[in-house]
């Protein structure tokens, strides 16, 4: 990134950021503030103009009134507490649905309904309607229509065509004045209308809501009527199909013998279930009888008289025999202890006990035979049931195959039956909707006649106008700031050129110049001049003269005690005031008592010579090219004693750079320098000619003159880079034609440039 130029032996060059500098650019807030201050005037002027335009707009604009009403799109509107009718859309109202209803409100059908309710004459009774309709037609179409009407006169419209045109104008008027807006994320739509008549705005806004509600009623009724017309033949067809499939099911049952019970199952299926249940019971009986028989057989085989089964316990014979045996055993035990085991009584009791046991086992054998008989009967019943079950299972296999076809027929019959019932229910609902039509929308607020106009508003018009004017003024100020490429302050000269700003020359007004009478030549060899050429010597306490004195100090400090001091004044462009400063600077030096010689070395333009010695015929050109003596061309200013060498007239050579850099120029400077303290050389501009570069070697220093805000900074830098020898001898820069009243707007870092008002007491 290029930064400010730096003075070196090679001339003017750009340097990048050094290693020690931060690469982060700093924000110059003071410079920004100074730019805002500089452009404050156009911004304020633009703001005032904008506010005035806004006020004029408010005064000239016809007031319009706005009336609004609100619709709620309710997808579950109820007719009463008993009959609830849902909307046609069962998905609810989303954003797309609300936007769709907004488009419905914009439709031509709604607009035509509004015209029918309000009346087309009422819609078009405004004085500004026709002009409003005309404004809706583009300029291109209007031009084409005008050309066509000029070439081919329009034919007389019929009454029907006039009515159609009038209706088209009314539709355009309604469309352009209608405003529709969804309120937030709700299902509320705000319908507004703008008109020059307050009552019409409210009337049309309410007409729109009523037209929309009526349209919803009509749409729902038409939809349900079309649904009923479509459902009726479908119902008749489904009823016939349901009857046919039901008959097919019954016929198939009869053919295959698939008789069902009250529970819905087939008869053979019920029989198989019952047989299977009996078979389980029979097998249980066989197992139980076998277990009893085996148990009693084991008791008989073991001879355990004490062992018993349930039938033995309940048998009174066995119980009695056991009791007798027990009593005999007790007696036998007592007698045996008394009489001995061999006593006949003991023996008889033992034989009685044995007989009792034989009788018990005999009775148990009889019971065992009954158990065996019971087991055999259960086995026979089990075999019979198994045979019967096998037979019924065979029949069920055949029936199951028939049941597959039966189920298919039943499913078909159920399908047609369900469809028939559903369609019949829908048909009844559609009839109810026709009887009780509902709308998805309801009005939640009614438009009232506005008392105040909606537009224009005074405060808003002025504020908007002021804002637009402010933006325009700010934009113009930005353009001015971007186009301001000249030098405006001493800090810019120091930062960009690395040169010292010697001072600023204030712009001299015509009123100030009128106070200084021009000096007329009092004879041959005398220097005259305009008031501007003598301003510094006539206003010795002015800022103008103070800058000239600053230039003398800078020259003395830079050149030192060398005599004479040969100082050139140069600029980049013409008309920057270089010749004026040269003359005033030389006159001021002469007025201070220094022997001063002023040379007009601008051989191509001769502006200085034409101003102060307009009748001089001989000059520098003749000295350098023809060897004319210096004394024959030199003139003197009477009041200061300044010696002046004009450029001369009838300059025929175009190679003036060869003359000003020739040895004759060196001899001239040496000759006049022997009798002078200062030699001031007025050079041509640095930009268009090379005379300055050619003669730079003869000068001890160069004072550079820049016009304040006029000369481009880039142009000055380029000129110095192209003429390094001039830049090396440059003592400083004088800013000329400075507007001191605005100078402080361009000083953001060095406030001394803007303190001329505070220094006014030091100037006369």
Automatic annotation (TrEMBL):
Cell compartment(s), UniProt: Cell inner membrane
InterPro entries, A to Z: AAA_dom, Bact_polysacc_biosynth/exp, GNVR, LPS_length_determ_N, P-loop_NTPase, Wzc-like_C
Question: How does the entry describe its membrane topology?
Answer: Multi-pass membrane protein
Q: What Pfam families is this protein classified in?
A: AAA_31, GNVR, Wzz
Q: Where is the AAA domain?
A: 565-687
Which residues are listed as membrane-spanning?
42-60
Q: What class of enzyme is it?
A: transferase
Q: Has UniProt tagged this entry with the keyword Membrane?
A: yes
Which keywords belong to this entry? Answer: ATP-binding, Cell inner membrane, Cell membrane, Coiled coil, Kinase, Membrane, Nucleotide-binding, Transferase, Transmembrane, Transmembrane helix, Tyrosine-protein kinase
Q: What is its EC number?
A: 2.7.10.2
Where along the sequence do coiled-coil regions lie?
399-426
The record's catalysed reaction(s) read:
L-tyrosyl-[protein] + ATP = O-phospho-L-tyrosyl-[protein] + ADP + H(+)
Instruction: Family membership, please give it.
Output: Belongs to the CpsD/CapB family. Belongs to the etk/wzc family.
The name on file for this protein is non-specific protein-tyrosine kinase
Organism per entry:
Xanthobacter oligotrophicus
